[in-house]
Amino acid sequence: MNAPNTAGWRPEMTSNGAATPLPATASGDRGLALEEPLIFELAAPGGTGVDLPEASAAPVAGLSRHLRKTPPALPGLSEPEVVRHYTRLSRQNYAIDLGPFPLGSCTMKHNPRLNERVARLPGFADIHPMQPRATVPGAIEAIAQLADWLMVLTGMAGVALSPKAGAHGELCGLLAIRAAVEARGEDRPVVLVPTSAHGTNPATAAFAGFRVEAIPATDDGRVDLAALTARLADGAGGDVAGVMITNPNTCGLFERDMPAISAAVHAAGGYVYCDGANFNAIVGRVRPGDLGVDAMHINLHKTFSTPHGGGGPGSGPVVLSDRLAAYAPLPFVRRDDDGVAHLVEEEDLSSLPGAAPFGRMAAFHGQMGMFVRALAYMLSHGGDGLAQVANDAVLNANYVLRSLQDVLHAPFADAGPCMHEALFTDDELGEGVTTLDIAKGLIDEGFHPMTVYFPLVVHGAMLIEPTETESRAGLDRFISSMRSLAARAKAGDPSLKTAPHYTPRRRVDETLAARKPRLVWQG
């Protein structure tokens, strides 16, 4: 069993201001900050929470060779011991219901409980993907309403709802682009990706079979329009299928040249893919379709407040322009002339001239629970409420940026207001102090760390996204902690190099842990 971790515990202050180290506790616990061993270390030989009859030793035809020769290596505990173990572990988890997740480009925000209530209504919660379509017209109508909202909010002509996540949606958009290129009888093997795009963009393009070429950023953190147009000029763009661009980008900045970028790509015969992970910064304010975007995935958890990851499968719908809508994957929803929504599968295509789906992204239509949550969020906010979401997301991020730029280096502070996230670096923290040290210090302060070392266009990045659901009081607490950590760093406080101190486990060798993880219990 691991020894109690007492190093770095806050000393008690005496009446004269002197620090007196507190004694170590015999249990290793510190009040309600519990020292929890592994479940195998808690186990007792022969312990169990249930009584089972002795198994029959009679041979079973065809299965006897699979009978165990030794008991399984499972820990033996009573039911209360198991419940208490996992409850104690849960107390060590950080959660959005405990405090803010300042993860840049991840949009970890509050999930309204109303959405959860609606998703649990009978007819939504108990629906099964193998049910005949005729038995679920209400669910199909809900899916169609979500599709309608997504198309209206983005100014697009079609939507694919089956992708399960953001990167899955990226792949869907690129496969639609490839299908459109192939339908024209062309060979366009290149996808252009700006250095300010999300890291999944080049990976997805490569996975889809394209060759990736980088487009540099300007000094103010935006796409270099001159470099892009030069790559496409004078027929040189004949090999380019499209561009993948993140807007707002991962520096937290709006790509002001988006219409010009789209026009240049379209003139060269390519398509414009927009990474819509940051749509919460512009929802209700800007329609990507009006900027010339042909395909964009939308992370429902980021903009429309479904749980991050969805407790399993997430949801990354892809909206498509009229240039790509015909290639949307199966299945998809479509309204008849009478307004009734139908789910379209292979057998229905003969009645839909012009539809040329590239295939399918998943066995079924998508994640029903996420659809219902997102639709409930949209209906409860309305168009004006969704615009307010964007307003507040941008306001909160700029509040963080301007509140910290005097103590942390903000590389693009002079490029104008940021959008949904604020970007800082470790350039002015003092000798030897790194972004990782600040992140570990935040854990001691009771916060989840921000995104570290991303985006790659700046050294030692600290990317902070407060989201629109954080109050000013909550932001002030976070800002106060960040300012304190910056002051400690500049004062040469050596304890930052060994933080966190107030956690059950101290700083680990992360490189070693990643390369040689111990994943199996060895008693």
Structure characterization notes:
The chain has helices spanning 39-42, 79-90, 113-119, 137-154, 166-183, 200-207, 225-232, 258-267, 300-303, 368-404, 435-444, 472-490, 510-515; strands at residues 12-13, 19-20, 158-160, 190-194, 211-215, 240-246, 271-275, 295-297, 318-320, 332-335, 341-344, 422-424, 451-452, 462-464. With 523 residues, the protein is an alpha/beta fold. The protein has a seven-stranded mixed beta sheet with strand order 3-9-8-7-6-4-5, sandwiched between helices. A three-stranded antiparallel beta sheet has the order 12-14-13. A two-stranded antiparallel ribbon has the order 1-2. A hairpin with a 5-residue loop joins β10 and β11 (341-344).
Summarize the structure.
With 523 residues, this protein is of the alpha/beta class. The protein contains 13 helices and 14 strands.
**What is the annotated CATH architecture of the largest domain?**
3-Layer(aba) Sandwich
Q: What is the string of SSEs from the N terminus onward? A: EEHHHHEHEHEHEHEEHEEEHEHEEHH
- Helical percentage: 25-40%
Distance between the termini: 10 Å
What's the β-strand tally? 14
Low-confidence stretches: 1-14
Gross geometry = globular
- Main sheet properties: 7 strands, mixed
Overall radius of gyration: 27 Å
Number of helices: 13
The top-level CATH class of the largest domain is Alpha Beta
| Strand portion | 5-15%
Query: CATH homologous superfamily of the largest domain - what is it?
Result: Type I PLP-dependent aspartate aminotransferase-like (Major domain)
Average pLDDT rating? 90
Derived from helix and strand composition plus strand pairing, the structural class reads alpha/beta
Task: Please list the strands of the largest sheet in the order they lie side by side.
Answer: 3-9-8-7-6-4-5
Domain Aminotransferase class V: 186-309
Catalytic activity: N(6)-[(R)-lipoyl]-L-lysyl-[glycine-cleavage complex H protein] + glycine + H(+) = N(6)-[(R)-S(8)-aminomethyldihydrolipoyl]-L-lysyl-[glycine-cleavage complex H protein] + CO2
Enzyme class: oxidoreductase
GO molecular function: transaminase activity
